[in-house]
Structure formats: structure tokens, C-alpha cells
Design brief:
259 residues, alpha+beta, Type Iii Antifreeze Protein Isoform Hplc 12, five-stranded antiparallel β-sheet, two-stranded antiparallel ribbon, 4 helices, elongated
């Protein structure tokens, strides 16, 4: 009977086992690298701008409501986040942003931007209202009145054959020139209206003068600005209930030199 020669198989067995072991080690190494890479992506941190308090829609964001905080950002577009508080200051929230929430580019917009129904609130202090004044090149200082300027209002009244002119209000804050949809220097130069901030009582007087007299505006020197609308309210006319209506007799009593 012929004998089988097992010497060759025996001599090759250690190399076969070594190859299998090396293959297992290589596979294990790839698995570990993949796990580490996945874990690294899941815990990637970036310093981004977050809210330090709840931010309401339409109210410009103040710098004191912002801080930098390191958070995981894996899986999100890099352009979604802000990495400098200055980029967010003054922006307008489109929705409520809660304290601690990262501020992202899809929940804020620039002031005056195309926000649809969610435009920013006009900068009107408590106790004041916005009023629109007609203007023109001659009436409005040749189109040189700009937002955040302060103007004086001059009234000219003709009654019983007597004509009199008087400055009736000083330091009226202009918050917009032209319509809300207009922008730029050229639009301001050709604007037909000024949006100003006045008290409820001033609003009634100005409306009377617009109806029964003529008005012109003076652009005040910025050295002389004494903005009354920076107060919380005017003590002489603190709120809507302070406006009692205006008649000819009321105007005569308030501005006797005009009559």
C-alpha cells in the first residue's frame, strides 16, 4: 500500500495560519479607523454665536444677547453658523430664538430686508408714535434730510387777514425718508414723505397744522441735537390717554403768537 506524503502539508501549515492572522489584524485595524473617524465627526466642535436670552421676532438683536460657545456641528453646512458676534448684531429674528440656541442664517435677516410679513419694528420709544409728514424739495431742505436726523417744524397760519410764522416743534426725530420699499440716497432725495417720531399730543397738533396751515422743515445741526424721543416718555404727554383732541381754540391757546 502506498503511503501519503504529509510532510509538505505540515510544513506549510504555519504560513497559512500566519496569513489568516494577518488578514484578521488588517480587518480589525480598518474597523477601528472607521469607528474613530465616525466618532470624530460626531463630536467635531466649533465656536459659534448663540443667544444668551430669548430673542423675539422683529426686534433687532443687541450685542448683550450674544456670546460665543463651542458646540458639535457635524452634519450641518458650515455656512449655517456665525463665528463672530458682530455678524449677528442688529439682525432681525424671523422666529423666536430661545436662550442657548445657536443663531443660524435661516432664522435671521438684515434690517430692511425682504422679510415678507415679518419686518422689523420701527424704532419707536414707549409713549411715542410714528407720523408721516409730506415733504418736497423746497419743503424738506432740498432732499438733505436723512434717517436719524432731527428737524424743527415751522408753521405758517393765515387768519383774519393776518399771516404769522412760528417754529412749533424742535428735535423731531426722522426715522425713515420715503416709503418702506425705497432705499438709497437717490430715493431719499426724491422722497415725498418723512416718517417721524412724536408724542401722541404732538401728533394731534401737527395733524391740525397739516390740515389748516402750511409746514416747512429745518434740518438741525447735529451739534444741537437734543432728542426728546430718547426718553422713556414725555412727562407732559406720557401715553395715548394724554391726547385729548385739538380744536382751533386749543391751538390758539398753545401758540398764541400765530393768531
Amino acid at each position: 500500500m502506498a503511503r501519503l506524503n504529509l510532510g509538505g502539508l505540515t510544513s506549510r501549515r504555519p504560513f497559512t495560519l500566519l496569513g489568516i492572522l494577518l488578514a484578521v489584524l488588517v480587518i480589525a485595524a480598518f474597523v477601528l479607523v472607521a469607528i474613530n473617524a465616525s466618532a470624530g465627526q460626531g463630536t467635531a466642535q466649533q465656536s459659534v454665536v448663540v443667544a444668551t436670552r430669548d430673542l423675539q421676532p422683529r426686534i433687532p438683536i443687541d450685542a448683550s444677547a450674544l456670546e460665543m460657545r463651542s458646540i458639535p456641528v457635524a452634519g450641518y453646512p458650515a455656512s449655517l453658523f456665525f463665528h463672530n458676534s458682530a455678524e449677528v448684531k442688529g439682525m432681525i429674528p424671523l422666529v423666536t430664538i430661545v436662550s442657548g440656541q445657536p443663531i443660524t442664517s435661516n432664522v435671521i435677516a438684515k434690517p430692511g430686508g425682504a422679510l415678507g410679513a415679518q419686518s422689523e419694528y420701527l424704532p419707536i420709544q414707549s409713549g411715542y408714535v410714528a407720523l408721516q409728514l409730506p415733504t418736497s424739495d423746497l419743503q424738506g431742505v432740498g432732499g438733505n434730510i436723512q434717517p436719524d436726523d432731527y428737524i424743527s417744524v415751522i408753521a405758517t397760519v393765515e387768519t383774519n387777514g393776518k399771516i404769522a410764522t412760528k417754529t412749533i416743534f424742535h428735535d423731531i426725530h426722522v426715522i425713515r425718508v420715503g416709503s418702506a420699499s425705497a432705499s438709497g440716497a437717490s430715493a431719499a432725495a426724491t422722497a415725498s414723505s418723512l416718517t417721524v417720531v412724536v408724542t401722541y399730543c404732538q401728533s394731534e397738533f401737527i395733524t391740525w397744522f397739516l390740515t389748516y396751515a402750511s409746514l416747512k422743515y429745518e434740518l438741525e445741526s447735529y451739534h444741537d441735537y437734543q432728542p426728546s424721543s430718547s426718553q422713556a416718555s414725555d412727562p407732559s404727554c406720557p401715553g395715548v390717554n394724554s391726547a385729548k383732541g385739538v380744536t382751533l381754540q386749543t391751538v390758539q391757546a398753545a401758540f398764541p403768537s400765530l393768531f
